[in-house]
Amino acid sequence: MSEAVELIWYGDDAPWYDHGPQHPLRPARVRLTRELILAYGIVDGRSVLETPARDARDEDILKAAEDWRKAGRAVALRLLSATPRVESIDKAPAGASPSAPWREAL
Question: Over the stretch 65-76, which tens digit does the pLDDT of each residue have?
Fold first, then answer.
């Protein structure tokens, strides 16, 4: 378990982002939740910290892109390996896909 929890605060304008009328996270809820957290003294500077948000650095973006690429490739390979391969579409069982030589290139 972590020694401390960080609450990342995106600034006073961020809570006003509207996710749409059907989304449960209303801007006022974000502000009220933060006010309650501060009023109850939960942010104590030791076990709970409030950290101002920062813009992502180039290396953060590249790392995230690489992680997404790897995750997408893993999902695609898992899905492809679960699909039966057949040599002729005429002999294919229901739900099977024809043999795909591009599969090995993934």
Answer: 999 999 999 888
